[in-house]
Specification:
The chain is 45% helix and 11% strand. It has 509 residues and is an alpha/beta fold. The chain is globular and about 75 Å long.
Length: 509
């Protein structure tokens, strides 16, 4: 089994596998025997861990639970859980974990930064590292077995939707990694989500906020077939588990790089610190270091504080419409009709049934697919569709698009944009919501009052934001299949924590 033309992967969030007939037959025969046996053994070891993990903090008060466990609770139960954890991955076919280099001591490097992050099976690195503490989504604490293991680990839990929880998480991380050896080492996946391993994502600053030394750790799966990848698109978690357990064994290598001690500049600027460590790890891996991140539901690249989707909803919409037989001329006419409809004061939010009629589609399913590109339900904002599609297709000039968008999103019709107005306007142009708009709004207001003319000037002349039109919207289709070039990326570390805000949802922990 091989990655489907790795060199043509559109970006690191896609992983497709292509099995030959012989490999399918072999996998089916081995899977029928190995899958049930291995899953049964794995479940058995998990069930054994459940009550033992609960014992570690049993009977302790909340105040005692907030401190690192000591005495027999630490050394005795720790070795049992470590043994059973290794047994879980041994059962799944990870017979050996090859280790290169030396793991730094707690006082040398309080933080272990692991990359690339490939999927939920990456948790096996905990066995090789001696079960360091982790950071996880608070929702995971309610899961059977997993919740008990997080409690045993005294993991830092965070609700990513709650700003206070995020602040508390950052505070706890700082406290632990600067405790001078009081707390165990902390492991983080600074990419924050899983990829196909073809590039490193932009590192999140969580592992670097405290300005302490970190040890970069490389996690590789050098064997073929490579079945462990669980990304935004591609193999499902069940497919990953099936294909991995259907192999006689799976190879894994953990490599410790030298401890990275931050400079004074890096201590004062975690973003710079994170970027420099990303470059170093990318160079060691021989892959590009990119500005790609997962922003909510969409993989994006950053342009200033704008989030530009790697898979443009507008381009996907155009492909769906062409597949339904609509010519470019017809699509342009439909987009103009939608713009006229929005100008007339009709509601911009339409359900899939209405969108089917507007676009002249033969089946509702295509309209539902288009809605899903822009929203979480079967409704869509027509302004997003017609503006973003017109932008990528070149149906209208930049000046015309900005004028139309300004008219719609100047909510109080005073000829001036607020930060919220600009957020909605840019979200409609690129096709995905833009929440972090402060930097762009500041750049706009430095040019005077935030008028339409100022916005035109910003998008035509600003060294960063003019790229939205000149390099992104006009070239989305051209770069869609160019993974090797890694648009907006930095080549092989020659040029950038996971705040730990979670560890096992698709496709991020």
């Amino acid at each position: 089994m091989t990655l489907k033309d790795k060199r043509q992967s559109p970006h690191p969030f896609v992983y497709e596998v292509d099995l030959t007939a012989a490999q399918r037959i072999q996998g089916l025969i081995l899977g029928v025997v190995l899958f049930p046996v291995r899953i049964t053994l794995t479940a058995l070891f998990f069930l054994l861990m459940w009550p033992i993990a609960r014992l570690r903090l049993a009977g302790l008060s909340e105040a005692e639970r907030a401190k690192p466990v000591q005495g027999w609770r630490r050394w005795f139960l720790h070795h049992i859980i470590l043994f059973l954890s290794r047994a879980v991955f041994f059962s799944l076919g990870f017979f050996w974990i090859k280790v290169r280099g030396r793991q730094a001591g707690l006082r040398e490097a309080p933080v272990l930064a692991v990359a690339p992050h490939s999927g939920f099976l990456d948790m096996l690195v905990l066995c090789a590292l001696g079960l360091p503490t982790v950071v996880s989504r608070s929702e995971n604490s309610k899961l059977p077995v997993i919740g008990a293991l997080l409690e045993f680990n005294q993991a830092v839990l965070v609700n990513r939707k709650d700003p206070e929880s995020r602040k508390k998480c950052v505070s706890q991380i700082r406290e632990r990694v600067t405790s001078d050896g009081h707390w165990p080492q902390m492991l983080m996946f600074p990419e924050g989500t899983t990829t196909n391993g073809q590039a490193l994502l932009k590192f999140k600053p969580g592992a670097f906020l405290a300005g302490v030394a970190v040890q970069p750790v490389l996690l590789r799966y050098p064997g073929e077939p490579d079945t462990v990848r669980w990304t935004w698109k591609g193999l499902s978690w069940l497919g990953t588990l099936w294909h991995t357990t259907s192999q006689i064994y799976t190879r894994v290598t953990v490599e410790f790089l030298p401890v990275y001690t931050p400079s004074q500049e890096e201590k004062e600027n975690p973003e710079v610190y994170a970027e420099n460590v990303q470059k170093l790890m990318a160079k060691a891996l021989g892959v590009p270091a990119t500005d790609y991140v997962m922003d909510g539901r969409f993989p994006v690249k950053k342009l200033g504080n704008l989030s530009l989707p790697l898979e443009s909803p507008a381009q996907a919409t155009l492909k769906l419409l062409h597949k339904q037989g609509l010519t470019n001329a017809r699509v342009e006419a439909v987009m103009n009709d939608m713009i006229d409809s929005c100008h007339s004061g009709q509601s911009a939010m339409v359900p899939a049934d209405h969108l089917t009629s507007i676009l002249g589609l033969k089946d509702r399913n295509t309209a539902v697919k288009i809605c899903s590109l822009y929203s979480k339900d079967d409704t869509v904002d027509m302004r997003q569709v017609c503006l973003s599609v017109s932008a990528v297709s070149g149906f209208r000039s930049l000046e015309s698009l900005i004028h139309t968008a300004f008219t719609w999103f100047d909510t109080d019709q005073d000829g001036l944009l607020s930060a919220g107005d600009l957020s909605g306007l840019m979200g409609a142009l690129v096709g995905v919501p833009q929440y972090a708009i402060d930097e762009m709004f500041s750049a706009l207001t430095t040019r005077g009052r935030p008028t339409e003319a100022s916005l035109q000037d910003l998008l035509m002349t600003h060294p960063v934001y003019r790229k939205v039109f000149t390099e992104y919207l006009r070239s989305t289709e051209a770069t869609a299949g160019n993974h090797n070039a890694v648009p907006n990326g930095k080549a092989n570390g020659n040029d950038g924590i996971y705040n730990g805000y979670g560890s096992t949802n698709r496709k991020s922990d």
